[in-house]
């Protein structure tokens, strides 16, 4: 189906499905203010995804993949409504604002347009000419042709012709914050984006302070398609076995011939004493380890090869020192089918030291941060770099500040149709 083949739908059915979606978004805290709810109610979401059935279009958790590559991986999509409304809420968009959206699809730009109103301006930029052409067509069909400026370009440079912006919302997974985004954001402006820090993608809301400092709050996990162009991620991936690889942006980078040899050495295990129950969330532990452990990396691959259940989908936190490797696993507790206990496993001459470090970090997370909201982040090109707590990317240095503050989280348990 092409964008010109928009099917005709029963108006009553569309309205019922949309109202049910709005109800569910309120229930899980993905809607928090009436203006965002009104924007969702005003927009015919099905116009922006004509190839999908209505039930899927108005499912708040459904990601609508509109373009895939030769490997079947999505390169463009209409994101799930819950994450779109949540990002709009965190951006705190008001009437009259100038907003830049990075990564276009049409629907999210229409949401932003409703929020800024007739006195605001919305620019949506994407690197793919097919995606921008589709967005223009669908925005016109939905009645937003004159309210959203769709631009073809590499988002690494932002959009200087439309700057400065009060808000920048990024709808593709970023691995860095290019200088152009900060330069084109007004003082006090907000940058909301899915940012991948040391392998773990979360949604962040940064506020721009004088001097180019960004102060950000982390939020929910999300799975956006990766950025293309100059900002495309380029992590170091080193094979461990045919079925396992290690990904890192830390130093030292593992030697391709040494890492498999270390991994093949006898393993040493140490239980942490920290347990979680069924369906418990442990993304905060992943972020804690990623931002506090020197030499942090992730192991991805076959759980059978690793020997125990991995944390997450084929990804588990790891540490590499140049001669030794340690990583965290999550085996089931044999005496309780509803409990899992974090297990540290190490290989190499310094395995005992690494295991102690890893276990102590897990225990500290359990004691001090398990129920907290996660870290705030400072981001700036020139933060002091003489500490292991600084995470370096091509353009930016990040520092995670782990304090306890009250940040609301999504609660799908509140949704009877979870």
Notes on the structure:
There is one protein chain. The chain has 418 residues and is of the alpha+beta class. It folds into 2 domains: 11-231, Rossmann fold (3-Layer(aba) Sandwich), CATH 3.40.50; 236-369. Helix content is 26%, strand content 28%. It has helices spanning 11-27, 34-42, 54-57, 81-91, 107-116, 129-142, 179-183, 258-264, 283-292, 303-306, 351-369, and strands at residues 64-68, 74-78, 98-102, 121-126, 148-152, 165-170, 185-197, 200-208, 214-221, 236-239, 244-248, 268-277, 296-301, 316-320, 325-329, 339-347, 376-380, 390-392, 397-401. It has a 10-stranded mixed sheet with strand order 5-4-3-6-7-8-9-17-19-18. Strand 10 and strand 11 (244-248) form a beta hairpin. Helix 2 (34-42) packs across helix 5 (107-116) and helix 9 packs across helix 11. The protein is globular, with a radius of gyration of 22 Å. The chain starts with 10 loop residues before the first helix and ends in a 17-residue tail after the last strand. Mean pLDDT is 87; it is low at 404-418.
Shape by Cα distribution: globular
Terminal residue distance? 30 Å
CATH C-level class of the largest domain: Alpha Beta
The SSE string, one letter per element, is HHHEEHEHEHEEHEEEEEHEHEHEEEHEEE
The Cα radius of gyration reads 22 Å
- Return the average pLDDT rounded to an integer: 87
Flag low-confidence runs.
Answer: 404-418
List how many beta strands DSSP finds: 19
Structural domain count: 2
Which features characterize this protein?
418 residues; alpha+beta; Rossmann fold; 2 domains; 10-stranded mixed beta sheet; 7-stranded antiparallel beta sheet; globular; disordered C terminus
């Amino acid at each position: 189906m092409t964008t010109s083949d928009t099917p005709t739908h029963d108006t009553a059915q569309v309205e019922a499905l949309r109202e049910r979606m709005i109800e569910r978004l309120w229930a899980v805290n993905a809607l928090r203010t009436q203006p965002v709810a009104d924007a969702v109610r005003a927009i015919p979401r099905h116009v922006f995804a004509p190839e999908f059935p209505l039930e899927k279009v108005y499912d708040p958790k459904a990601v609508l993949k509109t373009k895939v590559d030769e490997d079947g991986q999505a390169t463009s999509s209409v994101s799930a409504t819950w994450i779109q409304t949540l990002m709009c809420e965190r951006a705190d968009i008001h009437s009259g604002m100038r907003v830049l959206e990075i990564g276009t699809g049409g629907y999210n730009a229409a949401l932003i347009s409703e929020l800024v109103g007739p006195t605001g301006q919305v620019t949506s930029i994407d690197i793919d000419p097919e995606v921008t052409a589709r967005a223009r067509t669908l925005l016109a069909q939905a009645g937003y042709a004159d309210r959203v400026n769709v631009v073809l370009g590499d988002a690494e440079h932002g959009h200087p012709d439309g700057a400065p912006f009060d808000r920048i919302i990024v709808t593709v997974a970023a691995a860095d914050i290019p200088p152009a985004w900060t330069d084109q954001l007004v003082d006090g402006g907000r940058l909301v984006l899915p940012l991948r820090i040391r392998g773990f993608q979360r949604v962040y809301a940064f506020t721009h302070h004088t001097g180019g400092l960004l102060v950000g709050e982390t939020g929910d996990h999300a799975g956006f398609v990766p950025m293309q162009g100059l900002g495309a991620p380029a992590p170091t991936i080193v094979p461990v076995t045919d079925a396992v690889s290690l990904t890192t942006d830390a130093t030292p980078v593992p030697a391709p011939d040494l890492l498999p040899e270390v991994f093949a050495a006898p393993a040493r295990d140490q239980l942490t004493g920290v347990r979680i129950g069924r369906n418990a969330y442990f993304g905060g532990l992943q972020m804690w380890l990623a931002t506090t452990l020197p030499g942090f990396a992730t192991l991805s691959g076959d759980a059978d090869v690793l020997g125990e259940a991995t944390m997450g989908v084929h990804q588990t936190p790891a540490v590499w020192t140049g001669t030794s490797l340690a990583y965290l696993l999550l085996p089931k507790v044999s005496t309780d089918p509803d409990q899992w206990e974090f297990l540290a496993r190490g290989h190499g001459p310094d395995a005992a030291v690494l295991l102690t470090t890893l276990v102590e970090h897990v225990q500290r997370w359990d004691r001090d941060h398990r129920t907290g909201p996660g870290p705030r982040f400072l981001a700036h090109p020139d933060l002091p770099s003489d500490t292991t707590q600084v995470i370096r990317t091509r353009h930016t240095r990040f520092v995670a500040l782990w304090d306890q503050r009250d940040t609301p989280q999504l609660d799908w348990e509140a949704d009877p149709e979870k």
